[in-house]
Design a protein that fits this description.
Elements: H1 5-11, E1 22-26, H2 31-42, E2 46-51, H3 54-66, E3 71-75, H4 81-94, E4 100-103, H5 121-143, E5 148-152, H6 175-196, E6 203-207, E7 211-212, H7 222-234, E8 238-239, H8 241-253, E9 264-267, E10 270-272, H9 281-295, H10 299-302
Parallel strand pairs: 1-2, 1-4, 2-3, 4-5, 5-6, 6-9, 7-8
Antiparallel strand pairs: 9-10
Helix pairs in contact: 2-8, 4-5, 5-6, 5-9, 6-9
């Protein structure tokens, strides 16, 4: 689906350079994440790329570094708290400040799967891993002059049943609801984090990239992936990864953010309204408490910079 003409004009606006800026991107080895890393590398950003795929990640980091963008890769599975903590520790050892964190990694699974901790893997990958990772890097983000946290969300959040049950079980697993709830969690987390960071220089935003032609859902098999691509293709709403990444790249690199960007949801570089469930303060508070409990993060140490 093509954006309105005014958005196409905005998309042609040159992006600001990012020389000297430090960026962390999750899910950076394919699709939107890879396109985001490539674009920010061209703008001069120094990057840490975090993903499960060691081969693709190492190859991409080498290619970007060879082109002049200092880039390192860290292999980490977001469903593993131990691996998330190890990735955060490595970044903290190298950098005292972080300018931009892009929570991009995402997955949709057609069948139920549990993590080593017994949780549902869609929720763990899309939300809990990012909640823990962000919390562990907050002091580095708030230490800089104008940190930014950008979460890649989805319009699928509007289909989520806002019933307070965030994780499916093997008996009641519904792939569409599992994914929709995880993306609703992304929005609630982003908006609540923006509220709690309001007295700091950090700005928190969410992005809806729309339908993007990527390897997304390929892990479920070739046939489900082809169905996904054909379904969106028939609706004529698939865009290439570079266009899907454009809004996140814009928000990461813009020298001056749009007014009221903090706590906003963006598409085609412009703010758009979020679904009603994403603006539920009670749901946000409940999800926050659950996330703290499930990740084992230390609020007094790791989240000390946040307001309640």
């Amino acid at each position: 689906m093509r954006p309105p003409s005014e958005d196409r004009g905005l998309a042609r606006t040159p992006l600001d350079r990012m020389d000297g800026k430090r960026v962390v991107i999750t899910g950076a080895t394919s699709g939107i994440g890879r396109a985001t890393a490539t674009a920010l590398g061209r703008l001069g950003a120094e990057m840490f790329l975090v993903s499960r795929n060691q081969i693709r990640g190492t190859s991409l980091a080498r290619r970007l570094s060879a082109s002049g963008a200092a880039t390192e890769f860290i292999a980490a599975d977001l469903t593993s708290p131990a691996q998330v903590r190890a990735a955060a520790d490595r970044i903290r050892e190298r950098w005292q400040t972080i300018d931009v964190l892009i929570n991009n990694a995402g997955a949709r699974f057609d069948t139920y799967g549990s993590t080593r901790d017994g949780g549902e893997r869609t929720f763990a990958t899309n939300h809990l891993g990012h909640f823990l990772f962000t919390g562990l890097l907050l002091d580095r983000l708030t230490a800089g002059p104008a940190g930014r946290i950008i979460t890649v969300a989805s319009s699928a959040a509007a289909a989520a049943q806002n019933d307070g049950r965030w994780q499916s079980t093997a008996a009641d697993f519904n792939r569409k609801q599992a994914y929709a709830k995880s993306k609703l969690a992304n929005l609630l987390f982003a908006f609540e984090l923006a509220r709690r960071l309001r007295s700091t220089p950090v700005r928190v935003m969410a992005v809806d990239p729309g339908g993007v032609a990527t390897r997304f859902a390929l892990k479920n098999g070739l046939i489900p992936w082809l169905k996904h691509v054909v379904s969106h293709g028939l609706k004529r709403n698939l865009v290439m990864p570079a266009k899907g990444a454009d809004t996140a790249v814009f928000l990461a690199s813009a020298a001056v953010l749009p007014p009221n960007a903090n706590g906003g949801l963006f598409r085609h570089r412009r703010p758009i309204p979020a679904c009603a469930a994403a603006s539920d303060p009670a749901a946000a508070a409940s999800l926050w408490s659950l996330s703290v409990a499930l990740t084992g993060i230390d609020p007094a140490r790791d989240l000390a910079c946040l307001q309640t």
